[in-house]
## 1
Amino acid sequence: MRRILPIILLLLFLLMPLSSKGKSESVEEVPHTFSIIYPEGEDELLLDPFSAADEMSLMVLEGLYEGLFRFDEETGNPIKGYAREVTVSDDSLTYTFTLREDATFSNQEPITAQTFVDSWLHLLEVSGPGSQKSSLVSLFDVVSGAREYRLYGTNRERVGITASSPYELTITLDSPAPYLTNLLATTPFSAVHFDQFNGSGQIIASGAFTLVSSSRESVLLRKNEHYYDRDEVGSEYIEFLRLSQEESVQSYGERGGEWYNVYIPLDQLRTKDDLSIDPIYSTGFYYFSRDEGPYSDPKVRKALSMITPWNTLRETSGQPFPSSSLIPFSRHGGEEDQGSIEDAAELIREAGYEIASLPPLTIAIHRGSTLAESAQIIAEHYSEVLGITVIIDTVPLSLYTRYPNANPYDLSYITWVADFHDPIIFLNLFYSKSAYNIANYRSNAYDELLEGALFADDPVEREIFLDAAHRFILSDAVAFPLYTGFSLNVVDSERVRGWYPNDLNIHPLRALREIP
């Protein structure tokens, strides 16, 4: 679900004119503020734990909400949060959680087993197919009765989530879910106060921080004094600032921030230790997103794919980890069929169209990305070889990713960062029953493969289904991977503690601290 990552190329060694801006005026007088810098942009924050998908929104939400588990700052693995003890049955189908009895929301109301029952049932209620809630929700279908309740709203009492006492919670599964504790550490499965189910009113936090203020330019968080582990929270305040490239470089030079999610030219770095470049469990890919018309037809998609120089685009992208695989670090990549103009024309005719009758094709890339060149190559190829009119739009990322079923474009680009290590995180993006079907894709054959993996009892069987689903989505010409992603962070190595590189690019706010 998580994180739609802005792309930054390593080769952007441009010197920028500088202008003056440090920490925001709203927090200049606040002590112990840890500042995190993001690029300026037009995308609004979405502080909804059930829906957010962009990186900055999820980073803020991670500080505001916590669940039975949270992610370890060093490894990115799940560790216990509000769960004090966990017992798993021998068949791995029943999980019993004993909760902390000192747990409260920021308004001092208790967090109990029933809190999680209510939060998760609400999440299922609002997450039917195409609802554009978290892409992770359908992974919870493995819970007994959850799939039927999510899809059809029936048999609420049969959902395998029960509070047997105020501080004991039981989850019953239909089949083993090796990813369950990872899933329960993600934001959508946090403890959410009942009053916030409709997204109205002030945020009542269950995490290490509370919200002080939020705008397009900045967000300020304060340590939650009623958080169970408040003594281990590293910073009194966390500030998020959106700055221009020039302002970011100026801020870095003046030590106005601690962590920069923007590119700082190499010759501007104080020390190479401030720069962290790491491969992460993410993939950058183009995808077709129409659910009607010729560009929703697999034969038309395959015709366009077979004349697209995908390997050339990968090799000339400037990216350090070019890949034809949707699943990062997978040994199986996609092999797009290549063919002639005659082959492409024949496929288009088989779909019931003529090349001359194809409507203009629209391509979306987001601002701040470095894909203008690849999009231009695709556009010129389709125009010159097939005579199709192609329109490229560079727009805010949220315009086509926040609400996929309202995506006005035919071909779109995204970099998707996984919430945890499991191929199903990527494959679930194309599941027709998912709440967040990024490509508006419908295939019964694909759904059956994905459900085979979701409900497999044997790990070997699950792996077979996952591999088959991966191959299917690539062969059906829906997604076209270009590279495995990487993270680029600039962190003040002399002053910052609690920030660790990991291949999920997960950095919990509670661990971040600045030393004098």
Note: The two ends are 36 Å apart (CA to CA).
## 2
Amino acid sequence: MYQVLYRKYRPQTFDDVVGQPQVTKVLAEQVLSGRVSHAYLFTGSRGTGKTTCARIFSKAVCCRSPKNGEPCGKCDICRGIDGGSVLDYTEIDAASNRSIEDVRRIREEAWISPAQAKYRIYVLDEVHMLTNEAFNALLKILEEPPEHVIFILATTDVQKLPGTILSRCQRFDFMRIEPQLIAERLRSVAAAEGRELTEAGAAMIAGMADGAMRDSLSILDRCMSEPGVIDENAVAAAVGLVGKDALFALADAICAGDSAEAIRLVNEFHRASCDSERLCSELLSHFRNYMIVRAVKRPELIVVCTRADMQKYKQRAASVPLEKILFYVDVLGETAERLKRSVNGVVDAEIAILRLCRPTLAETESAMLARIAALEQRVSELETRPAVRTAAVSRQAEKAEKNADDGPLPPPFDAEADEDDGPLPLPFDAEADEDDGPLPLPFDAEADEDDEPLPLPFDAEADEDDEPLPLPFDAEADEDDEPLPPFAAETEEFGDPPPEEPFTLPFDADEAEAAPPRAAQGGNPAPAGTHPFARWSAVCEEAVRISPMFSGILPEFSAAEVGNTMRLSSRTPMFRSILLGNKTLTDALKRAVKAVTGRDYEIEIE
């Protein structure tokens, strides 16, 4: 009859026990020295060797010829305990024999002297399942048993044991077995069975076993049902797991927010008979490895995987914020709990995947942290780009805004020739309009009909008698050929000029046509009684030179002056808030205005 691997390769001595040296060495020393206690408590997770060590210890203390604290395995006692023929050794399942009557029967039998062995030994497995009355019945004999009785209590949930029981036993804690030790044991068992188990396959089984040697041997037993080499693919096919490559593909789609690809992969797993609960568990472990890689300096000591997979984990995890990874783990943990009670697991799995791809669909604290982390990452990416515009680009953008009705200006230094005169000799881009109106760029003078250049250094438009205008600014003559005073062009739109003296410094000729100032995104006309600030573009250039932070802010404002006050307006609340809430920027702007105009202006932001 076929015997399963975990029974066939059960350790027979303390040396055969894997991963529990803190227990086996002490027990062997007690047997060797004869200092054997009357009550022991073995506690730990499943499959870590509690019952196995209890059986080895029982054989060792009753063995006819023990060697260095180990049972010989050949005498009638050792073979009888293994075969179940020694009546002095009793293993009791406390989960099914948990009543007070069962404990009373044990207590009555304990007073009977052993028939074959040196001791009468009782092993109570899963002792935490006893009732309170049964524990009370066990207390007295556990405290003062006959000299020939040894009690060994084994449990996976030591917290449920009363303190009175704990105080009467020597406690030994069985730790989860290291995955590396499990993988080595699996390969030796596979070799003994004449099968080849790859390192990657052994690591995958050890990872699924969660520190339990019995579970790992059961998985290996299942994998051996198929012929051939037992590798990762064979293990995944036998157990119904998602392959590592498929998990990485699904995780990449989730991290990129590609919900369509993620849902497609989930449905492929479902068609391949991958259970939704298993998929959720595997994906949870996958993102847990991301978390460990981000949080620990040497994740190789914790994460069970091959070197190639570890390299993939490090590359992927480096591009995902830790807050987002914690959000993934949180959602998958909730989904795993919900899947246990779910009517349709596929729907719950798909909902979880959508929430992972789009954190905005979740309202938990971890979802908020994930969204904040994504925003911070986006801001850091934007900050790495060039933050300062050149002065020429800023000025050209401002002119294009103020001359929106005439279309964008051509690039600087590109002179467009008219039909009759050929290319203009000036280094600036000057284009004559049909009505011989003023040119938009400074220092670009248009010749009159007689091709005589204007004598002024500024761009002035000649009247019908070809007489130059007397003002140093670019002003448009009215119908009676009388020059307009400075800053008084088209006063019907701006109202009466302020009582202060007109601004005496030269300004750009393209400001000559006093169009109402507009905000960066189609702003409103300036309030009555104000004038457009003539040297605003020069102020922007000087402000950017003082502080590069102005480069993306000031071009979004329009400026007007009233008296000794400069009014800035913009339809973008964020830019207004930046200037209003930062006195350092406001002071720097005042310095730039004074450097350009020579005057101290108060800054008022609308």
Note: The chain has a mean pLDDT of 77.
